[in-house]
Design goal:
This protein has helices spanning 3-29, 35-45, 53-60, 64-76, 98-119, 124-142, and strands at residues 51-52, 80-85, 88-96. The protein is globular and about 50 Å long. The mean pLDDT is 90. It starts with a helix and ends in a 7-residue tail after the last helix. It is 67% helix and 11% strand.
C-alpha cells in the first residue's frame, strides 16, 4: 500500500475508534457503566458457565492485570461473581449475577439499536472486506515497534 494511503487508512481507523469510544461512553454512562464493563457483561451474557479471567482478557484484548481490576469493580458493584473452576483450582470463572443479567438485559436493546443504526448503510460484502482489512491491520499492529533510538 502506498504510504499516503496507508497514513489515511490508519488515521480513519483511529478517528472511527475515537468516535465509537466517545459515543459508547455516552450510552453506557447513563447506566453507571464504562464501555469496557459493558463488554464484559456482554461476553458473559451468552456464557452460562462463565469465563475465566484469562478468556475474558483474550476476548477483550486487554492485559490480564486490567481484567483483574475490571472484574474487581464489576464484582464490587454486584454485577458479576467469581467462582472456583471445578476443573482447575488455579483459576476463577466469572459469571453474571442476576443483578448483572438484568442490567445487561436493560442495556443490550439500546446497544443493538446503535449497532444497527451505525451499520445500516454498510453492505454485507463491504463489511466482510472491512473485517479482513481490519484483521490485517491488527496483525501488522501486533508487531509494531519503534526502532531503538
Amino acid at each position: 500500500m502506498k504510504s499516503e494511503l496507508a497514513h489515511e487508512v490508519v488515521r480513519q481507523v483511529l478517528l472511527t475508534a475515537d468516535i465509537f469510544l466517545r459515543e459508547s461512553r455516552r450510552l453506557f454512562r447513563r447506566h453507571g457503566l464504562t464501555a469496557a464493563q459493558y463488554n464484559v457483561l456482554n461476553l458473559l451474557a451468552t456464557e452460562a458457565g462463565g469465563l475465566s479471567q484469562r478468556q475474558l482478557g483474550d476476548l477483550l484484548v486487554v492485559d490480564r492485570s486490567n481484567v483483574t481490576g475490571l472484574v474487581d469493580r464489576l464484582e464490587k458493584a454486584g454485577w458479576v461473581r467469581r467462582e472456583d473452576d471445578p476443573g482447575d483450582r488455579r483459576i476463577y470463572r466469572v459469571s453474571l449475577t442476576p443483578v448483572g443479567r438484568r442490567l445487561w438485559e436493560k442495556i443490550a436493546p439500546d446497544y443493538g439499536r446503535v449497532v444497527r443504526l451505525v451499520s445500516a448503510k454498510v453492505r454485507d460484502q463491504d463489511a466482510r472486506t472491512a473485517l479482513g482489512t481490519l484483521r490485517a491491520l491488527q496483525a501488522g499492529a501486533v508487531g509494531w515497534r519503534l526502532p531503538d533510538a
